[in-house]
Each structure stands twice: as structure tokens, then as C-alpha cells.
């Protein structure tokens, strides 16, 4: 208790010293008291020092935590930018193929193209549609052919203001009139047994060879216009066979388009006005 009392007196004298003149009896008393209480001031400082150190430690720790959170946010932002750049870089080859197709001789006349990203690719082997990041506000129309630069992907089956749905060639209800560029043989490309693409309705009297290229046949008569213009690449004939009882050749087709993992596609929009 005595030590505590002396410490209090020392603190009181220190307080008075700031408020009193620099000379006089009180100043002399303060000087004598300060000398007598100097050891207690030192002891008080030593007692208080660990608390000051603890305060400084926790304040530094709090600042370090704030700095750590800030660094984490900055790292997360940089990582997000890197991921975004990587995603854009991954689309470059697909966009270059689309540009090559648009500027090539196979691009159908009377059409413009809306190039866009694929939002949701097919979810599995039995999924036959995808969503794209362009809709009616960008000029996308219902029943517009869709390509990926290498070949035909499918057709627009539903349109919203900012997005659209595309039905793939592999959909069981998809049928595309096709022609063999080498032989001129025509048929219908659709899904065959096992989900593979086939060229159907080709009589056994016609000749189709493995390696032949198939493109969309286009419109034959103005009365019955086709949804697909002439010349869009579809795929390559991978095998041809025939049985004695079958009416048509069994022609397997390998599509040019990567239907399972397209990252960017082009929607071919006719320049004809809406009816």
C-alpha cells in the first residue's frame, strides 16, 4: 500500500509540475519530492513497461492482420484477373477459326455473323444443346445456323434478349440436308445408332468414300427454303458399309465442329428482313 501511495504522490507531483511556475517554494518541494520519489518512478516505469509492450504487440498484430487481409484481397483480385486473361487466351484459337471461316470462300453470301462465347457447353454425352452469350439484342434470330469456325454446330432453337439456346447436330430431332463435295451425292445427316452422326438416305447405287467432305446442301427450290445455306462444312465420311437387306448405305460421319467443348461460336444471321 505504501508503494502504491508513493506512486500516486509521484504522479500528482508530475501533474503539478506542468501547471506550476519554474521557481518558488513549491518548485523546491517538487524538486525534493522528485528526487525522493525517483526510485519509485523508475519502478513504476518498469511495472508499466510490460503493459506498454503488450499494447504495442497487439496493436502491431492488429495492423499485421489488416495488412494480411488487404494482401489477400489484392492477391484474389490479381488471381481473378489472371483467370480472366487465361479464359480470353483460351478463346483465341476458336475466334481465329471463326474469323478465318468468315473471311473464307465457304462463308455463305447473304449472311452476317454474330460471334459470341459459349456460356454452358453440353453437360454430358446425352446433352444436345448449349447456351450462348448473345441474343435478340445482338441480332440473333430463331433458326439461325451456328458454326464454330471448323464446321456446323447446330441451330438456334430459342432466343432471349441477351442469350440464346443452340440445338446441336447430335440432337435426335436434328436433320441437315448434306452433299458430298467429291461425288455430289446427297443425303440427310442426323444421329444414328449409338449417338453417332450418319449420312442417311443414300441409295446403294451411289458411291460415297471414306474421307469425303460433307457440306450443307442448301435450298433446292424457292418454295421450300432450307434453314441452312449451301456450303457450311459438316464433317468427313469416316466409314461406308452396306448390307444385302438394307436399302441405303451405312455412312458414318465425323463432324468437323468440336460439339462437346466449343468455347466460341458464330451465329449466321440472314440479311433478309423478318417476315
How would you summarize this macromolecular structure in one to three sentences?
The protein has 275 residues and is α+β, with helices and mostly antiparallel strands. The chain has 2 domains: 1-103; 109-270, Thrombin, subunit H (Beta Barrel).
User: What is the CATH topology classification name of the largest domain?
Assistant: Thrombin, subunit H
What is the makeup of the main sheet? 6 strands, antiparallel, barrel
Looking at how many chains there are and whether they match, the oligomeric state comes to single chain
Number of strands: 12
% residues in beta strands:
25-35%
Q: Please write the CATH class name of the largest domain.
A: Mainly Beta
How far do the termini sit from each other? 102 Å
Order of strands across the widest beta sheet?
1-2-5-4-3-12
CATH homologous superfamily (4th level) name of the largest domain: Rod shape-determining protein MreC, domain 1
List the helices and strands and how they pair.
Layout: H1 2-19, H2 25-103, E1 111-120, E2 129-132, E3 145-147, E4 152-159, E5 164-168, E6 176-180, E7 186-191, E8 197-200, E9 213-216, E10 233-241, E11 250-255, E12 264-270
Antiparallel strand pairs: 1-2, 1-12, 2-5, 3-4, 3-12, 4-5, 6-7, 6-9, 7-8, 8-11, 9-10, 10-11
Descriptors for this entry?
single chain; 275 residues; alpha+beta; Thrombin, subunit H; 2 domains; 6-stranded antiparallel barrel; 2 helices; 12 strands; elongated
Description:
The mean pLDDT is 79. Strand 6 (176-180) and strand 7 (186-191) form a beta hairpin. Helix content is 35%, strand content 26%. With 275 residues, the chain is α+β, with helices and mostly antiparallel strands. The protein is elongated and about 125 Å long. It has 2 domains: 1-103; 109-270, Rod shape-determining protein MreC, domain 1 (Thrombin, subunit H, Beta Barrel). The chain has 2 helices and 12 strands. The chain has helices at residues 2-19, 25-103, and strands spanning 111-120, 129-132, 145-147, 152-159, 164-168, 176-180, 186-191, 197-200, 213-216, 233-241, 250-255, 264-270. It has a 6-stranded antiparallel beta barrel with strand order 1-2-5-4-3-12. A 6-stranded antiparallel beta barrel has the order 6-7-8-11-10-9.
Amino acid at each position: 500500500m505504501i508503494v502504491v501511495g508513493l506512486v500516486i504522490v509521484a504522479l500528482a507531483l508530475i501533474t503539478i509540475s506542468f501547471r506550476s511556475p519554474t521557481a518558488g517554494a513549491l518548485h523546491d518541494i517538487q524538486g525534493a519530492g522528485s528526487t525522493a520519489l525517483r526510485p519509485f518512478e523508475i519502478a513504476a516505469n518498469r511495472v508499466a513497461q510490460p503493459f506498454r509492450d503488450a499494447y504495442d504487440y497487439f496493436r502491431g498484430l492488429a495492423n499485421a492482420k489488416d495488412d494480411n487481409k488487404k494482401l489477400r484481397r489484392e492477391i484474389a483480385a490479381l488471381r481473378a484477373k489472371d483467370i480472366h486473361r487465361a479464359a480470353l487466351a483460351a478463346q483465341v484459337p476458336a475466334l481465329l477459326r471463326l474469323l478465318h471461316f468468315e473471311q473464307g470462300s465457304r462463308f455463305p453470301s447473304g449472311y452476317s455473323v454474330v460471334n459470341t462465347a459459349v456460356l454452358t457447353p453440353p453437360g454430358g454425352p446425352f446433352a444436345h444443346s448449349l447456351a450462348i452469350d448473345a441474343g435478340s439484342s445482338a441480332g440473333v434470330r430463331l433458326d439461325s445456323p451456328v458454326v464454330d469456325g471448323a464446321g456446323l454446330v447446330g441451330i438456334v432453337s430459342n432466343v432471349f434478349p441477351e442469350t440464346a439456346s443452340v440445338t446441336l447436330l447430335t440432337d435426335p430431332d436434328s436433320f441437315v440436308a448434306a452433299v458430298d463435295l467429291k461425288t455430289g451425292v446427297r443425303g440427310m445427316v442426323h444421329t444414328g445408332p449409338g449417338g453417332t452422326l450418319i449420312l442417311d438416305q443414300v441409295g446403294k447405287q451411289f458411291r460415297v468414300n471414306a474421307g469425303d467432305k460433307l457440306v450443307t446442301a442448301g435450298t433446292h427450290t424457292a418454295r421450300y427454303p432450307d434453314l441452312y445455306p449451301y456450303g457450311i462444312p459438316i464433317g468427313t465420311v469416316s466409314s461406308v458399309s452396306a448390307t444385302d437387306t438394307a436399302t441405303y448405305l451405312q455412312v458414318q460421319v465425323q463432324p468437323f465442329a468440336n460439339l462437346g467443348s466449343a468455347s466460341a461460336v458464330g451465329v449466321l444471321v440472314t440479311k433478309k428482313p423478318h417476315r
